[in-house]
Give the backbone structure.
Amino acid sequence: MPESNQTRNAATVDAPTESIGWRLEDINFTAIDSAHRQADEPLLLLLIASSFIESGTHLYASNLTTHFDGDREVTTWLTEEWEAEELQHGLALRTYVTHAWPSFDWEHAYAGFIAAFEPLCTMGRLEPRRGLEMVGRCVVETSTTSLYRAIQGHARDPVLRDLVRRIGDDEVRHYKHFLRYFRQFQQREQSSRMAVLGALVRRSLEIGLRDTDSGLRHAYAGRYRDTATPHPTFEETRRAVRALLRPNVPVGLAGAMWLRPLQLAPRVEGAVRRLFAGVARALLFVAAPLTASPAAPDANRRPPSS
Ligand SMILES: [Fe+2]
Ligand SMILES: [Fe+2]
């Protein structure tokens, strides 16, 4: 994304939210460009991983509504809009990959992902203070915004570009809701800036270490299950995915979204955003997981060449 656009977007990350609204029927999956099928395997694996994470939203959505029990505005929005839209993201991505890659057994690979993911979706993973959990949700939406904008920048298939643009717009809108709720809770809770920073860092590390890596591992395991042909190792696949994302991550926008809960003065935030642009790039989606997350079966299997 051009820096000028990033700067403009960065200035509006907390502008009033607006509901865009789209449906699966709005995407013409039958028009997927066959030239792009299977030509960009790391991209397809990334889309599969994303479809897993989005489709698993229900596992932690119930924890969130429990956490905010009694706040009717928040729980109503979470259940009636946010969760429904995240699940639609999962279904739309699943539909895309099954059109582009009909031989992939999505159900089987997803079952493996869910088995590893579900035990991790506990109430203990949420920030105890409601306002700080809203900060954590801002981090997640910043990460997904960055992911889908980066895919949009990389993808050549017009159908995929259209799809991830719509999903990315939803993620920005979700972010604005969570940021607004954070500000409401903050008026009562008065968390210190260090406490907010801690919530930002904790959730950022958690995303990279767990969700993203686990989704990709199970996409990889599903793709190369029972294959006798030579294929890349998981580490090679992960590097390829990072390489396709890295040039397209909207660092300026992501940095602004990540920093906004700190409620810095505009001039200070601008200076910090420029100073920490590289740090934001590392902390957000592109971050290389530093430790292994739940491993998928056969994740590093490379059969002998034949
Ligand atoms: Fe999503
Ligand atoms: Fe979202």
Summary: The two ends are 42 Å apart (CA to CA). The longest helix spans residues 158-189.
